[in-house]
Specification:
Order of helices and strands of chain A: EHEEEHEEEEEHEHHHHHH
Oligomer: heterodimer
Distance between the termini of chain A: 33 Å
Structural class of chain A: alpha/beta
Largest interface: A-B, 40 and 47 residues
Radius of gyration of chain B: 20 Å
CATH topology of the largest domain in chain A: Rossmann fold
Number of helices of chain A: 9
Largest sheet of chain B: 8 strands, mixed
Strand order of the largest sheet of chain B: 4-5-8-9-10-11-12-16
CATH superfamily of the largest domain in chain A: Nucleoside phosphorylase domain
Shape of chain A: elongated
Number of helices of chain B: 12
Number of domains of chain B: 1
Radius of gyration of chain A: 24 Å
Number of domains of chain A: 2
Strand content of chain A: 15-25%
CATH architecture of chain B: Alpha-Beta Horseshoe
Helix content of chain B: 25-40%
Order of helices and strands of chain B: EHEHEEEEHEHEHHEHEHHEHEEHEEHEEE
Largest sheet of chain A: 5 strands, mixed, barrel
Number of strands of chain B: 18
């Protein structure tokens, strides 16, 4: 299984430049949460709509739809209001406060990054006066809460682009302007996501079956408990004997118990050559 | 080195926090209510965080000085340990910390004065008795000294209390606190050592065995007492020659009279911890060795453990004339003595 990215964006206008840049195609007819993906299933995107409830539902939907495993990177990107005049600037978010509860969420910080970093306030209703906050949005808090449970917070990214502030009224925002803001930063965003996907790929081995495992369980009958034991033993065995064909070694075994005994015996007598 | 520092609100204005902030001017500083909000929560990935650990500055409120588990320490002493830090800059594949914590971020408790108060209170409470303090079980005692200055802070306390013994456990070659301090006869710098060929595979991001021996030599020349900690003992092809080579090498460089004590530790993991670590590093050769799961522990068979300890003791006794204190060792994850 390969690492992949799950993009969750609130607005179609935010999604458009990402869909184009990544070559994504619509893959379902769901009118509530449209889902897109590329041909290699490396990038998935869902349009959630505005607000935390929508984002939670969209994450759940795409998670089930795409059979998310632990090494998916989750990205929430979108526009945000700012008290300072930083129109068009991209920020990597490292602390999110949910306005309604003061609860804080912390996306991971494993990626070395030169991007500007900021805290973010997530509100339930559009904030008219945000002069006292760095950045404000309507999705990120619950996005981090739910995606951290799926992939762990280290693989969760929140990126925001300032769309409105003291000199740029929210009333002047149009779909075209929103798309343009995303497009202006798309290369930086994709570069960042790709770096995190590379890190996530370090986790792939955790989910891989040991080489030859499927062939072994097809050849002999293993109970569920034995399958678990077999997997653990084979993981160790294939590391000890990387150039040996396990099927050839096991072919004279009569049943699953003999297979397990053979593997245990081999490992019990294995002396690691550290030189 | 550190590009993100999380800081508990309660220590934001602590002088030590300010000093660390001033040394990491470009690091991103993020305020947190309590370090538990970001350390060791379940939704974290130790292995990925090891790629770029953050520093967490926090205040410790209790548990500054704790009694060591039964069977550990010096037999004629009252033994205690303390941890001013959780986690380590090194990434040793056998380390129990990678199974103990979900987070690889470093937690530094900046209220050192509370540690010293409790250490002094413990010494006072054991007046007239031998008392020993061990540092370096939840972290390496010296590896982050250039940031923490904890050893430099704590050594004067032991200078003032010469009847209390301090052991600093390390793989670091950071010698500054001992170079600038007078030699304390009641302080042991204990080095964790495994044969070089094995260290190259398993001691990730650590100074090489050569550099550790070089550091030990410098300390010995200044008069510091050293501990040798063959912990854990790692089995493999030709292990006798590897350990004999290591022991010969050490005693060819380090005068035997600099050695305070020697101990051996077995490779042991609680079953759940082994499962977690093996799952993180399924391709690690160490875990393909002759490990046995019995009684909730994963370890080498006892005949392997005993043979390795006997062999190493024998080589040491053959190598040096004078008697050496052999400490027992314990498994910090299970709090159980390893060698009965």
């Amino acid at each position: 299984m390969s690492s992949n990215a799950k993009w969750v964006v609130a607005l179609k206008a935010e999604a458009k430049p990402i869909i184009k840049a990544l070559g994504l195609n619509r893959i379902d007819k769901n009118v509530v949460f449209p889902v897109y993906k590329d041909k290699n299933a490396r990038n998935w995107l869902v349009i959630s709509g505005v607000g935390q409830k929508n984002v939670v539902a969209a994450v759940k939907y795409i998670s089930e739809f795409s059979d998310s495993k632990g090494c998916s990177v989750w990205i929430n990107i979108g526009i945000a209001g700012s008290s300072s005049d930083r129109y068009g600037e991209l920020f990597l978010i490292d602390k999110i406060t949910r306005a309604s509860s003061d609860e804080c969420f912390y996306p991971g910080s494993i990626l070395k990054s030169n991007l500007q970093k900021s805290e973010l306030l997530t509100v339930d209703e559009p904030l008219l006066d945000y002069s006292k906050v760095d950045l404000v949005d309507m999705e990120a808090a619950d996005f981090v809460r739910v995606t951290s449970k799926i992939s762990g917070r280290d693989l969760v990214l929140v990126m925001k682009i300032v769309s409105d502030g003291p000199n740029n009224s929210v009333n002047d925002l149009t779909a075209t302007r929103v798309s343009h803001l995303i497009l202006q930063n798309i290369n930086l965003v994709i570069d960042h996501v790709n770096k995190l996907i590379s890190l996530a790929s370090l986790e792939e081995e955790r989910f891989e079956n040991p080489k030859g495992y499927t062939a072994v369980i097809e050849r002999w009958h293993f109970t569920v408990s034995q399958q678990h034991e077999l997997k653990q033993l084979m993981k160790r065995w294939v590391v000890a004997y990387p150039f040996t064909n396990i099927i050839k070694k096991l072919k004279i075994m009569k049943n699953s118990r003999e297979v397990l005994t053979f593997l245990k015996h081999d490992l019990d007598n294995y002396k690691i050559d550290w030189k | 080195m550190v590009d993100t520092i999380y800081c508990e609100e309660s220590v934001t204005d602590h002088p030590r926090t300010r000093e660390i902030f001033s040394r990491f001017k470009s690091a991103r500083k993020i305020s947190v209510p309590r370090y538990g909000a970001i350390f060791n929560k379940r939704d974290q990935n130790f292995k990925l965080q090891k790629r770029n650990p953050a520093l967490i500055l926090a205040r410790k409120y209790n548990g500054f000085v704790l009694p060591v588990p039964d069977g550990f320490g010096l037999s004629d002493h009252n033994n205690f340990y303390f941890s001013h830090m959780y986690n380590c800059i090194y990434d040793c594949r056998y380390c129990f910390l990678q199974g103990l914590y979900s987070s690889a971020n470093y937690v530094l408790f900046v209220n050192y004065e509370d540690f010293s108060t409790q250490i002094e209170a413990t010494i006072a409470a054991h007046k007239g008795k031998n008392v020993a303090f061990f540092s370096g079980y939840d972290c390496d005692s010296l590896a982050l000294e250039n940031i923490t200055n904890f050893t430099s802070f704590i050594l004067p306390l032991f200078k003032k209390n010469p009847t209390a013994l301090l052991e600093l456990r390390t793989k670091s070659i950071q010698l500054k606190p001992m170079i600038i301090s007078d030699v304390l006869k009641n302080c042991v710098i204990a080095y964790s050592l495994i044969p070089d060929a094995i260290s190259k595979h398993l001691d990730i991001k650590t100074p090489s065995i050569d550099r550790r021996i070089h550091a030990m030599k410098k300390l010995a020349a200044k008069g510091w007492k050293l501990g040798l900690r063959f912990d854990p003992l790692i089995h493999g092809e030709d292990w006798r020659n590897l350990y004999k080579g290591l022991i010969d090498r050490i005693f060819s460089e380090i005068p035997a009279d600099s050695i305070h004590s020697i101990s051996f530790g077995a490779l042991r993991f609680p079953k759940a911890m082994f499962k977690k670590i093996h799952s993180m590093y399924p391709k690690e050769l160490l875990f393909s060795g002759p490990l046995l799961s019995t009684g909730g522990l994963v370890s080498y068979k006892s005949d392997i453990e005993n043979e390795m300890i006997s062999f190493c003791r024998h080589v040491i006794n053959e190598t040096i004339a004078q008697p050496i204190i052999f400490n027992c060792s314990f498994d910090p994850s299970t709090k159980k003595e390893i060698i009965p």
